[in-house]
Design brief:
The complex is a heterodimer of chains A (372) and B (309). In chain A, α3 links the parallel β1 and β2. Chain A has 2 domains: 231 residues, no CATH class; 111 residues, abc type-2 transporter like domain (abc type-2 transporter like fold, 3-Layer(aba) Sandwich). Chain A is 68% helix and 6% strand. Chain A has a 4-stranded mixed β-sheet with strand order 2-1-3-4, sandwiched between helices. Chain A has 372 residues and is mostly helical. By secondary structure, chain B is α/β, with parallel strands linked by helices. Chain B folds into 2 domains: 218 residues, 3-Layer(aba) Sandwich (Rossmann fold); 84 residues, Alpha-Beta Plaits (2-Layer Sandwich). In chain B, the strands form 3 sheets. In chain B, strands 6-7-8-3-9-10 form a 6-stranded mixed β-sheet, with helices on both faces. Chain B has a 4-stranded antiparallel β-sheet with strand order 2-1-4-5. In chain B, α3 crosses α4. The chains are: A mainly alpha (372), B alpha/beta (309). At the A-B interface, α1 and α8 of A face β6 and α3 of B.
Chain lengths: 372, 309
């Protein structure tokens, strides 16, 4: 025990001397989280748009005003189709609306089908999707007005299809509710993995590993002495990030805090095991860093952050169950947003537990053998 | 029983045999030198003795225990130091010593006393709070030794302890080793400095994985030396070497070897006194003046150069 403490104390002295490393561990993840949370919690507004108006009528101006009123667009003026093409290629605008010459006439004539053409820059799919949503809203309102008028009814007597939308867990469908917990969970993974991966690689690179190995430390004592600082710093980081998203970005915490705290610790142990394996197979810190990136990026694919796992081929969905980060993020989202407890999350809890036991047993054996 | 017993030790890496069936014993209370050029198998051997590497064949017993299997019992009673990598450069002198002490399980009172002794040994009193990386090579090496013997080990293994250190510091370091031996510590040291080999009680010389000489320096000199050493102080040593080597190749003189030693030339030959005049004449014919010429006691370096040829 006193030997483990001696090693831990030494590690903390290194951390104090090499202050950038713990600073990066603590603040790197925090800053990334702040940026992601801040960017995604703001609605998309002021997308630059150009209008090609061949009609130049009261009706066409009404369409333009309706588009401006959505707040999504920033009208950059009127232009012809060549100018629109240039502007989209240059990236000056994200969308353009083309109003045909006979628009107002067709609006008036009950047999005609008035048309609007919308050009979107699909190379940037997120603003394009947002623009599409706004344009569809405007078109829906125009259509309702047109139908009412053609039926010759007073607007208050018109009753159409009543479509009622209720979004659970994320009432305003904020992107932040989806991206922030994912980013939060991933940051914890990266901090633990990277920090653990440096544990023995650093000593090997300095040449001091040999000395450590001939001292009367057992391999288990070495592992524990190295693991304690990693866990202490990573868990502090986790708590800081949790406070940040809860009180600065006002994400809900609907489930049990205790459950979250326990699962986070268990998940850290699993990633610690993986990091330690990387640490003994790498010859340099550089190599360890690249391996962490490789492992982290692979896990990232299965977290549902970039693309939903449910949309992947069946084989990959199956594979996702073997990735601890997948279960961890499912649990994290469940507890934060849905208020889910053990009764609902048990498959993921079980998955994490089983994977954790397998990974920890393997890595403990592997690292001990490498150190002996 | 001798504290270190190496028997038929072999290590192969694939097709390459790094250590080839070597055997030797280190006696209690002696300085045992392990010599050899780089790549001869020194590091591989010391790693096997320390239990860091499993031998392909043969065995190592340290303090009567198996070096590979009983490490937990051996390590508290042995110390290890390598000049370059023993200490953490970002830790202060006292932090390094405290870490060593705690790692070996020294209690507080004992630790204080041992740290004081180590600081005194390394002559670092009053510099406890300097960063180790800021110390010069000689200080760092003495501190590393102080740290390695903090827990009062019975045997201490030193891997190239004086590499890259100035001659005066090397001298001081060896004085420290003699003090340890007087206290009954057994010292195992690897080096490639021949002058240091002379200071060892006994030594083994390893070359291409095999021991080519084993014993006290004087014994090795007696058994391995074919001929005597003639030291010549000519006007132009480099030219003299050229001339004598030519004479050797032509068979004009019965020389075993001709080596340059700074401004001097060492010639090894049987019955040196008989051939003195011929050698002098050969040099004078080449217009090289000779200031002095003497048969001297061979150094280990002479012996090993002779043995390697």
């Amino acid at each position: 025990m006193s030997r483990i403490l001696a090693l831990t104390r030494k590690e903390f002295i290194h951390l104090r001397n090499d202050w950038w490393l713990p600073a990066f561990m603590l603040l790197g993840g925090l800053m990334e989280l702040v940026m992601v949370a801040w960017v995604t919690s703001r609605p998309i507004t002021n997308l630059p748009i150009l209008v090609v108006d061949y009609d130049r009528s009261a009706a066409s101006r009404e369409v333009v005003t309706a588009l401006e009123n959505t707040g999504t667009f920033d009208l950059r003026g009127y232009a012809d189709e060549t100018a629109v093409k240039d502007a989209i290629v240059r990236g000056d605008i994200n969308a353009a609306v083309v109003i045909p010459p006979d628009f107002s006439e067709q609006m008036v004539n009950p047999q005609d089908r008035p048309q609007l053409a919308v050009i979107l820059n699909g190379a940037e799919s997120i603003p394009a999707t947002e623009a599409l949503r706004s344009v569809q809203g405007v078109a829906y309102n125009l259509n309702t007005a047109l139908v009412v008028e053609r039926l010759h009814l007073p607007p208050e007597q018109f009753a159409g299809f009543d479509f009622s939308l209720r979004v659970w867990f994320n009432e305003a469908l904020k992107d932040a509710f989806y991206t922030v917990p994912a980013e939060f969970g991933l940051m914890l993974e990266f901090v633990v993995l990277l920090f653990a991966a440096l544990a023995f690689t650093r000593e090997r690179e300095l040449g001091t590993l040999e000395q450590l190995l001939v001292m009367p430390f057992s391999s288990l004592e070495l592992i524990l002495g190295k693991a304690i600082p990693v866990l202490a710093i990573a868990y502090s980081d986790f708590l800081l990030m949790l406070i940040l998203i809860r009180y600065v970005f006002h994400l809900p915490l609907r489930g049990s805090l205790a459950l979250l705290l326990v699962v986070a610790f268990g998940y850290m142990l699993v990633e610690l095991g993986k990091g330690m394996v990387i640490s003994v197979v790498s010859h340099t810190q550089h190599q360890a860093f690249l391996l962490v990136m490789l492992v982290g990026m692979t896990d990232f694919m299965f977290t549902g952050y970039a693309a939903p796992v449910e949309g992947m081929p069946v084989a990959l969905q199956w594979l996702a169950n073997l990735v601890p980060a997948h279960h961890w993020l499912t649990i994290l989202r469940g507890v934060l947003l849905k208020g889910a407890g053990i009764s609902v999350l048990w498959p993921n809890l079980l998955g994490l537990l089983v994977l954790g036991i397998i990974i920890l047993t393997f890595s403990l054996r592997f690292v001990r053998r490498a150190l002996d | 029983m001798n504290p270190v017993i190496v028997s038929s030790l072999t290590k192969r890496f694939g097709d390459f045999t790094a250590v080839d069936d070597i055997s030797f014993e280190v006696r209690r209370g002696e300085i045992f030198g392990f010599l050899g050029p780089n790549g001869a198998g020194k590091t591989t051997t010391i790693r096997m003795i320390l239990g860091l590497l499993a031998p392909t064949a043969g065995s190592v017993r340290v303090l009567g225990m198996d070096a590979r299997r009983e490490t937990a019992k051996i390590r508290p009673r042995t110390g290890y130091m390598s000049q370059r990598f023993s200490l953490y450069n970002d830790l202060t002198v006292i932090q390094n010593l405290r870490f060593y002490g705690a790692a070996y399980g020294l209690g507080n009172a004992q630790l204080q006393e041992r740290i004081r002794a180590a600081l005194q040994l390394a002559d670092l009193e009053g510099r406890e709070h300097l960063k180790t990386g800021e110390l010069s090579g000689g200080w760092r090496q003495r501190l590393a030794l102080g740290a390695a013997i903090l827990h009062e080990p019975e045997i201490i293994f030193l891997d190239e302890p004086t590499a890259g250190v100035d001659p005066l510091s090397r001298r001081t370091f060896w004085d420290l080793l003699y003090r340890l031996v007087e206290e009954g510590v057994t010292v195992f040291v690897t080096t490639h400095y021949m002058d240091e080999a002379e200071h060892c009680h006994r030594l083994a010389f390893i070359r291409r994985g095999q021991i080519i000489a084993l014993g006290a320096p004087s014994e090795i000199k007696r058994h391995k030396m074919r001929g005597e050493v003639l030291e010549i102080a000519p006007e132009n040593a480099a030219r003299a070497v050229e001339v004598l080597r030519t004479a050797r190749l032509e068979g004009a003189l019965p020389l075993e070897s001709v080596e340059l030693y700074g401004a001097l030339v060492h010639v090894i030959l049987p019955e040196a006194r008989k051939h003195r005049k011929d050698i002098l004449r050969t040099l004078q014919n080449a217009h090289i003046r000779v200031h002095n010429m003497d048969v001297i006691e061979p150094s280990l370096e002479d012996v090993f150069i002779a043995a390697m040829q």
